[in-house]
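Anyone else keep sequences and structure tokens together like this?

Example one:
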Amino acid sequence: MRAHDPKFIAPTLVLYVDDGRITVHSDDLTTNVAELTHAFNVVREWFGTAGLQPDLDKCELMHHTWRRKDGPIDDLASLDHLAVAYENAQGEQALLRPLPVVRWLGILFDTRLKFRAHVERQCAKARKTAMGLRMLANSVRGLSQDNVRRLYISCIEPILTYASPVWWMQRQWQADATQKVQNICLRLACAVFVTSPVYAMGVEAAIPPMRHTLEKADGLAAARLHKLGARSPVLQRLGQGWQQRKRLGGPPVTHKKARSHSTLKYLGDLTTPENEQIEP
């Protein structure tokens, strides 16, 4: 079955500090579950030879699918044949059911990679922090407007733009959600009324709209691609041109292209492998 399935990708294991990930790709969710179950048992045996044991309470399962016939993730979670069976610490059989959202390195991944849950969580966290600024400054007393602006740039903006090259897909709802939080801070920094125009406040405070801030973060992430070695797993996804790049002089060249289906491919389109490699 694997030989006749050109889209099948064998299970791969990625470890980062104390986090691990097993992935498999095919056209059938049942095949994915069978491969993941076998790979998970192999990893547990490998850990056992080293005297280690994965934390089963923190193990999570997610199916990524864009096919409508698979149905919503809430229906998938109730199906036993789409859950990974394993033996818990008490020696009993248990099922690891798929989740609608999984957190990985501080990013919330959903089944269709829309990142709506991640954007909503970061906006809520940044909004809560912005409300705290009202205790430090207002139009009568407290910190000066310049200090409020500095607090926004150093404390709130990093929350809104955390890992933005991963989830920023130039969607209007993403720009609107982050811009609403920025508008709260602009009114505090400029000490103006609620009805004041947002564009004028941004000019007065020298703070660009969130769309431009997110695009700048993408450009910086694209420039950091030239710091990676030829064997980097990130460059392996970008094709042979990035793996066999030459050292050329001159300033970096960026190209504005349409958004690719993959955010990583989009970052690769913002620059070119012909640019000079940056030594760490």
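And example two:
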Amino acid sequence: MLFRSNITAVGLRLNAGTEVGATGNHVETTVGTVSARAANGGIYLRETDALIVGDVSVTISKVDSAAAVSTVTDATQSDVMTTGGNGNVVIRSTGGNITLNDGTAGGTTGLAVSANGSGNVLIEAIRNDTDITANTDVVSASGHITVQAGQSVIFAANADIRTGTTGTIDVEAGTGSITMDATSLYTTGTGDIRMLAAQTITVGDVSTGGNASLTATAGSILDADSAVGADDTNLNITAVGLRLNAGTAVGATGNHVETTVGTVSARAANGGIYLRETD
């Protein structure tokens, strides 16, 4: 089937009173940077190559009946957000990396993607050599959130995934690793959290009133804190139940994985298991 973009541009600014795209018919794009708003529905985008979520403004020269022109500007808009109707956010790239940046427009500081109410979020880089890099937050009030990269997922300093109540979090790295900065947080109310990487998982802070599962198929599960030769006291995982499975090791001799959990099960196929529990 021939794939044709609806919109090709350097920057794309979308703002709808209802929704952008539909569940079965996404808006197809070939753009560099995107910002989108939907006031009473979802946002559904399918990008052909690399995509940045960030700032976009548009300025045109409007022609009147006398052929004179006046400048009209659609002001800078940041991020991809649904603001009503429990709108979902779906951003998929078939052929490039996805980068989530904190925009500069007022009122949206500290996030790149936000779903209203129980709206769900999918951010997906499909090709197996593509990454997702989050430099700021991905949030929903209570919806489920999936971040899935063909290769690796990277969450930079203070970049979080946040939802609430029974919303779940799923982070997957198809051929590479999941890397959280030590200050990065994945958190929900009582929903489960799942992290699955083909290689290594470097965990910052994971917190839920439900269960958590971390699987590093061919690598290790490691503490993102940079302590060398001595353990730190910063928690990595808070959960009711914790399931760990690593192709190599869980933690390291000088840097244990710090937990506050009720029940734990762990496997390491080619190395040790090092856990430090608070209670």
